[in-house]
Write a structure and sequence with these properties.
The structure is a homodimer. By secondary structure, the first copy, chain A, is an alpha/beta fold. Chain A is built from 14 helices and ten strands.
């Protein structure tokens, strides 16, 4: 079985974006009409999924995608607490409908109603709703709700602890995932995403978060940002900062996905990072949608890169399935109820 | 001949830091005594260089280091225009003294007196002084003088054009190099440096800077940040953004150093990036000073990784010497006057 740990509903029906546009208009001008989620039929959802994510699953031969709202549209920097909460709930409810229509193909991962400067309590409540009521198995946590200004405390700060406590209670991991950038220096998918991945990992080295939460688990997407390429630097910095070796200090709690869009990158990832810390992911339909002229295949068809690895079949099975079931215990439980 | 394109005077005599401390004190309290560069003897410089950078050059077998002030101490975010200029001049003057004492071993690369929100004219003047009067051959350009708040325009913005015009006139390249981070999210050498490298490269993809300045040249240090590891992503993003292929659009003007502190990283770098774009560098004595327990050698002894590559001797010679002489024409001219 091939589980893709990283997929977003980047193709949601137009009515969904219309709701967001109305929300933005209303926030900017209180005289504008109130925004309400628009009517979206099951057929519209089917069309956007079957032509895109489901088609690509089938073409590329993956079985199940851990599916969350479009990351770049989370837009935590915009509006206020109420705007963020309403938009987040609409997004998560839409994911739930996708999962209900295609329960064999998608499992829900939720967005959180984060807002700069707002306590994390709203996110605790929405995580609880999504896991306990909607059957979701994980969440995307944004380390920079400001959208490229980085005004929140590091992920190791106690600011985040109430959220981590709930994650641990519910036994769900978080993918560390920023949203759009409103800083002209940072292209969203080309700089902000990768920088956030790198930044989060270094915060985990500096801090002592997993001493306080031994069972807390994070997936750092996009192959861990710059980290595997600079693995020597990070091992050396841990040493200079008098932290324990990374395999003890961080790598019992942190996992990287395989959203690295060329064979040499995946080869490096598997060469330096223990297989137990690698989860298959494609981020499709996502950041890079074209065909690599050097291979004739889609850049984000990451299964080809894993298949081409000269590693034991058992290790491939861990990357494709076993690790995801271990990091997402609620996924494992769900699959077991189906005899999978 | 082995040219290290990336070395900093991280071991300057204590009087130098005392001057900085006095500057900071004076800025914070105008009643404090005025700050003046302290007296530093040639012997003090000899001691700090011979015990550190020169010793390591000899032990590791490199010949010449392109030497600049300590990057993390540039501190462009601190104080005002006058503070930044005085500190920068003191730093560059100290580098000049090192070069005068060891002309066979070091060539000068200057710091710039950047300040957030200040026009780039001061930097134009200091670059001119350092190149025309002090014989320096390049500079370190900070894309984020705010120190982790990223308040300046992207490197492709016209804000920077007067500086680029002077770089082109003087025929000197710039290393894109941030300084310390005053944002708690970003560890300086573990996140801010690497993020800045990645960010700059993506800015070059988005923009059209090298159309306006066909002979402008940048070195992106630390192996190009996350870029080589995500080379497929960047090729794919260039395609999605309707930019020309990277080899035409960026890679006639952008170079990566070899400050990547483990063999697998260097292997990847040379596998995906054309040898013509790679310059030997170690960043010593720098970010990571310890010994890698898995090899028994210093993490930043990057010559070992290059030596271990299974590539043609002519390609190694380009990485070690030829590319640096091409990217730094004033270095080449200097070496030729010496018959080297």
């Amino acid at each position: 079985m091939i589980i893709d740990c990283h997929g977003h509903y980047t193709t949601a029906p137009a009515a969904h974006q219309k709701f967001r546009d109305a929300q933005v208009a209303r926030f900017n001008d209180p005289a504008a009409p109130p925004a309400r989620p628009g009517a979206i039929s099951d057929d519209e959802i089917r069309e956007t999924i079957e032509k895109n994510q489901l088609r690509l699953q089938q073409q590329r031969g993956s079985d199940l995608t851990l599916f969350s709202p479009r990351a770049s549209a989370m837009g935590h920097h915009f509006g206020d607490e109420a705007v963020s909460l309403a938009w987040t709930r609409a997004n998560n409810d839409l994911i739930k409908r996708v999962v209900d229509l295609y329960p064999q193909n998608f499992v829900g991962v939720c967005q959180l109603p984060q807002s700069p400067g707002v306590p994390i309590a709203n996110s605790v409540a929405e995580l609880t709703r999504c896991v306990s009521e909607l059957g979701f198995i994980g969440c995307n946590l944004n380390p920079d709700p400001s959208g490229g200004h980085w005004t929140s405390p590091p992920l190791t700060d106690r600011h985040w602890y109430p959220f981590y406590e709930r994650m641990v209670e519910l036994d769900v991991p978080a993918m560390v995932h920023v949203s759009a950038s409103c800083n002209a220096n940072f292209h969203a998918t080309g700089a902000h995403y990768i920088n956030a991945d790198t930044t989060a990992f270094m915060q985990f080295i500096e801090g002592d978060l997993f001493h306080d939460f031994p069972s807390l688990r994070f997936i750092i997407p996009h192959g861990g940002g710059a980290v595997p390429y600079h693995w020597g630097r990070y091992r050396g910095l841990a040493d200079m900062l008098k932290r324990p070796p990374l395999d003890q200090h961080v790598m019992n709690n942190v996992y990287f996905d395989t959203c690295v869009y060329h064979q040499p990158g995946i080869d490096l990832l598997v060469r330096v990072i223990d297989v137990k810390n690698i989860l298959f992911g494609s981020e499709m339909v996502g950041a890079v949608r074209g065909i690599d002229p050097t291979t004739g295949h889609y850049f984000d068809d990451t299964r080809r890169y894993i298949d081409a690895l000269e590693i034991a079949a058992a290790d491939k099975a861990r990357i494709y399935e076993g690790n995801a079931r271990r990091v997402f215990p609620r996924l494992d439980a769900l699959l077991r109820t189906r005899g999978q």
